[in-house]
Each structure stands twice: as structure tokens, then as C-alpha cells.
UniProtKB/TrEMBL annotation:
Pfam families reported for this sequence: CsbD
Domain spans labelled CsbD-like: 6-56
Name recorded for this polypeptide: CsbD family protein
Species of the source: Streptomyces niveus
Similarity annotation: Belongs to the UPF0337 (CsbD) family.
Disordered: annotated segments: 1-57
Biased composition (Basic and acidic residues): 31-57
Length: 57
């Protein structure tokens, strides 16, 4: 996994977790959903990079 892609994936996951938690705390469903979506996007990016790594090994 390239370092830049890995960093982006981790950043998206972290931002998503923060948004999701903040949304739950304040009772904002939209913020919770945005956080969940961002976290999922980071998970997908990470999975894509891991798959590319597995194919190149």
C-alpha cells in the first residue's frame, strides 16, 4: 500500500469516526450519517490498496 493512500484512508476513517461520534452526542442524524459514510469511504480505500498489494506480491 502506498504511504500516501494509506494515510488518506486512515485520515478518512478517523474523521468519519469523529463525525459519527459527534452526531450521536448531539443527536444529529445527518452528522452521524456523514461520519458513517466517510468512515466507509476510508475502509473501501484501504481495502482497495490491500487488494492491489496482494496482487503485486
Amino acid at each position: 500500500m502506498s504511504a500516501n493512500e494509506k494515510t488518506q484512508a486512515k485520515t478518512e476513517q478517523a474523521k468519519g469516526k469523529v463525525k459519527k461520534a459527534a452526531g450521536r452526542i448531539v443527536g444529529n442524524e445527518r452528522l452521524t450519517a456523514e461520519g458513517r459514510a466517510e468512515e466507509t469511504k476510508g475502509d473501501a480505500r484501504q481495502a482497495k490498496e490491500k487488494a492491489k498489494d496482494a496482487l503485486t506480491d
